[in-house]
Amino acid sequence: MSYPQVVVHFNKLLHNANTIVGWCKSHNVQVALVGKCVCADPVILKQLWQCGFAMYADSREQNLESTDLRPRMLLRVAMPSNAERVVACSEFSLQSQLETLVALEQACQKLNKTHKVVLMIDLGDLREGLLYTNWQQILQTATFVANSKHLQLEGVGTNLTCYGSIVPTETNLGVLVEIAQKLRSALGLEIPIISGGNSSSLGLMLQGKMPKEVNLLRVGEAVLLGTDTATGAKFHDLVDDAFVLQGQLVEVQSKPSMPIGTRSVNAFGEVVQYQDKGQMLRGIVAVGRQDVQLDGLTPLDQNIQVVGGSSDHLILDLTRATGYKVGDVVEFKLSYGALLSAFTSKYVDKKYNF
Q: What is the tens place of the pLDDT at every residue in 215-232?
């Protein structure tokens, strides 16, 4: 068996997926499954797809090209230079820039395809989207799509909590609904989709406070890790250990907790502050920053503490733990960032527990 490895517990993962799809169905909301965190792993996607998701969504063209799930949505606003690839690998995309929409129309014409656009509205999180206060720019951009021969204005959407930490509310999602209604009136189009964000909107929906006109959410982290991303806490009815990182101890020794000698920066150019805890039983796991985001690891054994690490080594405080020796395997829950980096790394194996 090779370490480090991420173990996928499908009974837990499918519990999360079925629960979330059920929640959304009861509120007349469809769910786009976001699989970018697991790099569109085909084994995982095949299992999750059975739970009733409406579409597959990803931010990487490579991942959309690798899956046979349909329909597909590109989450990251497209690069104009990639317009033909976007049209070829996705049926839907989230867009905000007129220049890119022109390139997409030209790509559709060349490939003899149509492409559905969800126009992104920035409600204050200040990531992608046309700023909600600039109605003329929104109308101009939407009008171009509406008048295009090959593009279809399928919806409006927004993204919250990812950059500016702005949480979804009745008020800001209400603004999104108002913009959709104004566009329907101005353009005489159905514009069927109002996509009210990602996992961070689930809590608002469950409270019954999400506008009923919102009918699509793009959900990844809540499915994979059970997280309410609006609060950072775990949803009560979901599990947060469907994915577990396993690493093997390669050293267990008693050492001082303070480095000895003249200190400078570490291997990553960081100035680290150390706490003197006296003599410590220190364990080293053969996993490092080249494998996974170390500060996103939480030991399942609560008597173990993560001290730090380097590109190849994770240092643990085993002083309060009992019985650990070289060759033993230590298990960790993963944050979103840690899971993303572990699946992106070619040095971390995957194990599937069905």
A: 999 999 999 999 999 999
Catalytic-residue membership of 46: no
Structure confidence by residue, pLDDT tens digits, 50-72: 999 999 999 999 999 999 999 99
**SS3 per-residue string spanning the chain:** CCCCEEEEEHHHHHHHHHHHHHHHHHCCCEEEEECHHHCCCHHHHHHHHCCCCCEEEECCHHHHHHCCCCCEEECCCCCHHHHHHHHHHCCEEEECCHHHHHHHHHHHHHHCCCEEEEEEEECCCCCCCEECCCHHHHHHHHHHHHHCCCEEEEEEECCCCCCCCCCCCHHHHHHHHHHHHHHHHHHCCCCCEEECCCHHHHHHHHCCCCCCCCCEEEECHHHHHCEECCCCEECCCCCCCCEEEEEEEEEEEEEECCCCCCCCCCCCCCCCCCCCCCEEEEEEECCCCCCCCHHHEEECCCCCEEEEECCCCEEEECCCCCCCCCCCEEEEEECHHHHHHHHHCCCCEEEEEC
- CATH fold, domain 243-353, is Elongation Factor Tu (Ef-tu); domain 3 (2.40.30)
pTM of the complete model beyond 0.90: yes
Active-site residue (options: 12, 36, 116, 333): 36
**Per-domain residue ranges for the chain?**
10-227, 243-353
Domain 10-227 part of CATH 3.20.20.10:
yes
